[in-house]
């Protein structure tokens, strides 16, 4: 117990040091980064490490103080759990398999609904099934040994019976270790997929967005202290169509709008949650000026939009990517909308580039319309309140994007302008990546270490309590090499049973989890090769970790068996 606590704390300390090192390496060149050591934090870490050691020693001393000296001198066999009969073992095995299959099916079909009761039911059925399966696994091993023992030689029967006894006596520990390894695999999958999804979800289109009058904004951007850093600026003309309709004067004709044609195209698609949400969220849209959006595309080195007669384009922000696949299918069907009882064809391309630097405005669904149409529906006299600014490309290459933004931000902070920068978006994305990926990966490693440590300690404790059997076999002529080989085979099967069940559960768990909680945006630069490479690397790291851990336990087991010669 003491060694386990200290080992886990050392791993935690190692991850803290890795975090500090990573922060230091990444921090080079990041805004205002300064290397600093918190002596208070370092002192508290050392103090915590000492407290864990003292607490572990106190718990062990408390347990040992209740025992008689004669019991401490004599090697005692550890307490074993109640063993089920063969019949009940088979019943438990079958029930466990049924429960696990039920949990897999429920997770795939219903987890995406995010119902609390269903989530609790899946957890209960899955955990119960895992415990039942391991509880009855000893009966399956016993039958396999009986079938093979007649044709086997050497220490096969001894190896099998030792393994069966380990499973029968330690089934609850095996189930817990399997669940911990399952949690580790889920954390790895979630952490990696989160970093992949977040890493490519927010493309840079604008560096700064200002809100205010043209006169105030232009005067600041054209000033001598800012002009050298500015490559260009332009108004982002957009307005809510419904709002402008409500503010029409008595002499102005009111306007009408309908998504009718687009909704019909969407209705033909297969029923799904995305379809329901999309149809429900199609309300009166924002109108976006074509010239403003084309200027944005120009600064991002993209082709401009060319609209034909009676043609408009569909816009949707990247944050609503859950409906984009469905929306793209509908747009390919020459869908139409109606404005003032006139039909307009929607362009087959869906545009998703962010209109502002960060979150000055987020439009779920809008229309990109020609300037004359925009002026007619909104009014050309209405001044745009949003202006976008792009930093000079040479300045960005020289300083780096983050340092360049920070320098311009310091200059803008002295003005009275209301503005936002892409820097805020980058910071938020970095926080999401760290919170969603680093922490879950950290937890995954911790779960994996704890699960394997429990397995290894339980096996070594069981081996020590049955060492008299190894002594007897040695006296009967069994060599130390054959005994070590028997123990190594036991360890392979002992770990293999736990890991295999955890991996099978993780396949369905990852399948249902990624389908319910995560979706990699279409705008991401990721491709199937990148995702496959990450999966392969993760599996290789997992396999190498398990092989190293098994090798460590086998080595420790060999040392215990070799001590038998000293006893003799």
From TrEMBL:
Q: Which organism is it from?
A: Clostridium tepidiprofundi DSM 19306
Sorted alphabetically, which keywords does the UniProt record give?
Answer: Membrane, Transmembrane, Transmembrane helix
Keyword Nucleotide-binding attached: no
Q: What name goes with this protein?
A: FtsX-like permease family protein
Q: Which PANTHER family match?
A: ABC TRANSPORTER PERMEASE, ABC TRANSPORTER PERMEASE-RELATED-RELATED
The keyword Transferase is annotated on this UniProt entry: no
Entry-linked InterPro entries: ABC-4_Integral_Memb_Prot
Coiled-coil residues are: none
Q: Which residues cross the membrane?
A: 12-35, 41-62, 83-111, 117-141, 171-192, 430-460, 491-511, 531-553
């Amino acid at each position: 117990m003491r060694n386990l606590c200290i080992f886990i704390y050392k791993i935690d300390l190692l991850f803290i040091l890795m975090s500090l090192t990573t922060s230091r390496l990444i921090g080079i060149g990041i805004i205002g980064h300064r290397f600093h050591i918190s002596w208070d934090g370092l002192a508290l870490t050392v103090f915590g490490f000492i407290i864990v050691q003292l607490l572990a020693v106190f718990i062990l001393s408390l347990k040992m103080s209740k025992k008689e000296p004669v019991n401490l001198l004599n090697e005692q066999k550890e307490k074993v759990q109640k063993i089920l009969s063969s019949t009940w073992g088979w019943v438990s095995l079958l029930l466990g398999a049924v429960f696990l299959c039920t949990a897999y099916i429920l997770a795939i079909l219903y987890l995406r609904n995010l119902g609390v009761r269903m989530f609790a039911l899946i957890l209960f059925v899955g955990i119960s099934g895992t415990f039942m399966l391991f509880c009855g696994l000893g009966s399956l091993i016993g039958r396999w040994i009986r079938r093979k023992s007649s044709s086997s030689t050497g220490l096969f029967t001894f190896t099998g019976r030792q393994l069966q006894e380990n499973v029968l006596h330690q089934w609850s520990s095996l189930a817990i270790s399997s669940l911990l390894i399952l949690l580790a695999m889920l954390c790895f999958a979630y952490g990696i997929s989160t970093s992949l999804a977040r890493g490519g979800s927010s493309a840079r289109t604008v560096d700064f967005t200002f809100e205010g009058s043209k006169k105030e904004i232009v005067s600041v951007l054209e000033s001598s202290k800012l002009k050298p850093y500015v490559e260009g600026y332009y108004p982002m003309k957009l307005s809510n169509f419904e709002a402008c309709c409500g503010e029409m004067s008595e002499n102005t004709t009111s306007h009408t709008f309908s998504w009718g044609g687009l909704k019909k195209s969407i209705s033909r698609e297969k029923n799904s949650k995305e379809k329901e949400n999309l149809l429900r969220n199609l309300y009166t849209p924002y109108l976006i000026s074509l010239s403003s959006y084309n200027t944005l595309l120009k600064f991002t080195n993209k082709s401009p939009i060319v609209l034909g007669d009676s043609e408009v384009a569909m816009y949707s922000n990247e944050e609503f990517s859950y409906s984009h696949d469905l929306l793209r299918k509908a747009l390919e069907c020459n869908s139409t909308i109606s404005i003032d009882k006139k039909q307009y064809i929607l362009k087959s391309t869906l545009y998703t580039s962010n209109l502002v630097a960060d979150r000055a405005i987020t439009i779920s669904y809008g229309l990109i319309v020609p300037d004359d149409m925009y002026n007619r529906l909104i009014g050309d006299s209405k001044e745009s309140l949003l202006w976008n600014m792009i930093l000079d490309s040479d300045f960005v290459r020289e300083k780096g994007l983050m340092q360049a933004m920070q320098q311009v931000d310091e200059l803008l902070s002295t003005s009275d302008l209301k503005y936002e920068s892409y820097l805020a978006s980058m910071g938020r994305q970095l926080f999401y990546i760290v919170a969603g990926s680093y922490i879950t990966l950290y937890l995954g490693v911790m779960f994996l270490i704890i699960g394997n440590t429990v397995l290894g300690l339980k096996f070594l404790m069981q081996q020590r309590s049955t060492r008299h059997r190894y002594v007897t076999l040695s006296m009967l002529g069994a060599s130390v090499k054959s005994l070590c080989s028997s123990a190594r085979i036991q360890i392979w099967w002992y770990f293999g049973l736990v890991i295999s069940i955890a991996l099978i559960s993780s396949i369905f768990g990852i399948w249902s989890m990624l389908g319910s909680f995560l979706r990699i945006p279409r705008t991401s630069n990721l491709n199937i090769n990148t995702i496959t490479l990450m999966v392969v690397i993760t599996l290789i790291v997992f396999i190498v970790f398990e092989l190293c851990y098994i090798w460590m336990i086998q080595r420790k087991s060999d040392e215990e068996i070799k001590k038998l010669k000293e006893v003799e």
